Amino acid sequence: MSRKSTGARLRTPIAALAASLAATAFAQTPAAPAAPAAAASAATKKADEGLQTINVTAQRVKQKLQDVPAAVTAFSPIAIENLQINSVMDISRLVPNVKFDPVTAGTTSLKPFMRGGGVADGGQITSESEVGIYVDDVYRARLSAALIDFVELDRIEVLRGPQGVLYGRNSSAGAVNIITRAPSDTFAASAEIGFGNLGEKRLKGYVSSPLSADKRWRASLQGMTRQRDSNGQYNVTLKKDVGAEKFQGLQGDLAYEGKELQARLSVFHTHTDGDGQWAVPNTITNNGATITPSTGSYRLVASPHESLTDVTQDGVTLRLTGNAGAVKLTSITGYVKMDDHWTQDFSGGVAGSLLGIPGGGTVALFDRDSVTDHHQFSQELQAAGDLNGGQMSYVAGVYAFSEKGTQKLRSVIFFAPSSVDFNADTKSLALFGQLSAKFGERTTLMVGGRYTKDDKHLDGSFGATPFNQSSSYSRFNPKIGVDFKITPEVLLYASYSEGFKSGGYNGLAGSVAQISKPFLPQYTDAYEFGVKTETADRKLRFNAALFHNKIKNRQQTLTVASGPAAGTFVVESYNAKLSGLEVELAWKPVAGLQLWANGAVNTGKYVSCSTEVAVSCSVINNKLPIFPDHVYTLGFDVDFGAGPGTIRYGADYSERDPYYSTADNVLIGWVQRQKYLNGYIAYEQGSWTYQLSGKNLMQQEGWQTGFGFAVVQPRFAIPARSVLFTAKYKF
Which parts of 567-686 are beta strand (E)? Predict the structure, then answer.
């Protein structure tokens, strides 16, 4: 593409943002109509306050975000609403080097990547992500049903880089911690109704109240139901819109806030029911140089095979916090049960003429049906406190995790049926600790470590052939860091940490031999240097992180393109190196206007094979999947008094360089440059808030991943444009 066309591509959306900002700036001049006194006073107060201060628990203790010596991004409730964060996928455009997509399975499954690390087989009971997903500090092992529809949240914390010391399971690339809203000491309630395109309808409600006269006992109940008629795709074979889905979620909380003891019990239930995910069939043309949908569009699918998604999750979390002298003790207990059923034709529907079938028509060449039953239990005990008059602080604890699950896979590949049954059992035990010591008023040294022991068992049958395998892995992962405050508003930090992801089993294997052979544990050496700055009046904030990771035994899944095992996947171990620079900027120049941006520059590749196992070494010097060279987002938010209320509006524009979604770097897995424009406008008056929001407003069409073998060359489309109007009332 020419430099001229690239510039033209950028000018249209950026010009739109610039025009809106110009209008906003004009609205702030003295010539603009004066706002009502109350609204103007509120706007002045908001300007004086500067950028919002967010407290996080990224290091298991409460800190201001700008004081955390690590690459952490956090979102407050108002940011979650304005930025339209309805699922973890929406974080992709808002945090550098984060990309969350649906995995190729059911519609609720997740494929999370951070800094080039992640997994693409989240629909398998054997899969363990490099990116840990936590809800109220409880690790969610199954990436199925991980695309959570948020109800009422306190905040979202996104931690980039290995979190091997303080976060419980396999978070060697990063972690996301979703903190739900706890019951309050005053009565609060809200109700929201929404309507959108594609037949979107939603209803949300929240109520919280103290239960005792002293307000120590509190309770809350929140729920949501939504449905849509389509995901924006049409099946040309079945002659109907596809992608319909219904969701219901409910969470109840009971809390006690005493002087010496705080407790919170959360119980939740979610259910998603829909007609599943649909692959787009593709045809290679122009001597293999171009891949285009055989249907003519990524919004058109062709499979004659009906897809479905049916997922139910239930869980309980109990958090207890108390003081034993100067020591703060915390217990976090979590239980989650999931039933997951999905069906899909991964071929997307292939023309019978390509196979020499008389009469042509469209046939399904890769049907797969999966039924999973899973439950997990985790227990974490923490102790935290200060030593030596506050010159030292510590966090230490023990973590235990147990997971059991079954999965029944039934496949028909090129008309040949096959079946695989899994019974998986994982147990993990870890001891961890982190100590921080101040040297003078400005310098802090931090040392920490975690010892982990994982025991895994997998048995079942591949067709009529049984398999039974057990393995054990252990590792001590250290972390050391230093931070220096040049001024109270400028923090420099440097750290070295290790990430660990235990070995395991290939749930997408094509033979008993492949299933029975465990792959190696993965190790990451991570170096990071960062700076966090904020002006004294909190009008300008700039954070940057420079990182370099060396990965040993990268657990990489590759497609088997031909032979008896075609259509299955093997796991090979590679060594990789990657580096990058991430920046985040926020600026509040005048009352009611906030500008923000984030971006990253990256490089990474596979450098060698592991010498401990025999592999094909076919991806040496290939680029790492889902790790683009450049990515950035520009955005703004505005609010000002208008009549008896306040108008809020904003937009963000993001671009992501082309990248490969698969390690083999083949054309079917290449993803073109992605460009997204999102926006919202809202009006608040008293207890009412009316908001119109839109995602993918430029109707970016394309795909987020693809794989291929023989005439099966599917890709999976990015979400279509969505527009939603909501009306919310706060009691």
Answer: 569-590, 593-609, 630-642, 645-656, 659-660, 670-671, 674-685
Closest CA to 444 of 479, 478, 393, 383: 393
Selection from 251, 257, 262, 190 nearest residue 218 by Cα: 257
Q: Which two tokens stand for residue 288?
A: 């293999």
Question: Residue 669's CB: how many other CB atoms inside 10 A?
Answer: 23
The residue type of 102 is P
Domain annotation covers residue 25: no
Least confident segment among 275-284, 356-365, 539-548: 356-365
Phi/psi at 460 (nearest 5 deg)? 155, -150
pLDDT of residue 571: 79
- Per-residue pLDDT, 613: 62
Question: What domain count does the chain have?
Answer: 1
Residue 287: strand, helix, or coil: helix
CATH number of residue 453's parent domain = 2.40.170.20
618 closest CA partner among 670, 570, 660, 577: 570
pLDDT in tens, 218-234: 999 999 999 999 999 99
Please answer whether residues 420 and 409 qualify as being in contact, where contact means their C-beta atoms are separated by less than 8 angstroms.
Answer: yes
DSSP 560-601: --SSTTTT-EEEEEEEEEEEEEEEEEEEEEETTEEEEEEEEE
pLDDT, the chain, mean: 88
List the domain range (segments joined by +) for residue 602. Answer: 34-730
* Cβ-Cβ contacts under 8 Å for 115 (sequence gap 6 or more): 97, 160, 161, 173, 174, 547, 549, 578, 580, 627
Nearest-angstrom CA–CA distance, 107 and 310: 9
pLDDT at 26 over 90: no
Beta bridge partners of 374: 338, 405
506 burial (CB, 10 Å; 0-12 / 13-18 / 19+) is buried
What's the residue count for the chain?
731
What is the C-alpha separation between 417 and 397, in angstroms, rounded?
A: 49
User: Which of 32, 16, 711, 715 shows the shortest CA–CA distance to 364?
Assistant: 711
Write the pLDDT tens digit of every residue in 450-473: 999 999 999 999 999 999 999 999
Averaged pLDDT for residues 241-245: 95
On whether residue 21 sits in a domain, the answer given is: no
Helices and strands in the chain, H and E counts: 4, 43
Residue 166 confidence (pLDDT)? 83
Nearest to 99 by CA among 6, 174, 156: 174
On whether residue 602 sits in a domain, the answer given is yes
Cβ contact 411:417 at 8 Å: yes
Enter the tokens of residue 260. 């010496």
Torsion, CA 230, CA 234, CA 237, CA 240, rounded to 10: 50
Contact 183, 254 (CB under 8 A): yes
Which whole-number Å values give the CA distances from 523 to 478, 616, 663, in the listed order?
A: 12, 21, 18
Instruction: Tell me, rounded to whole angstroms, the distance of Cα 541 from its chain centroid.
Output: 24
Residue 701 inside a domain? The answer is: yes
pLDDT at 236 over 70: yes
Q: Best-predicted range by mean pLDDT among 93-107, 569-583, 643-657?
A: 643-657
Please give the Cα distance from 422 to 124 (Å, whole number): 10
Rounded Cα distance between 571 and 654, Å, is: 33
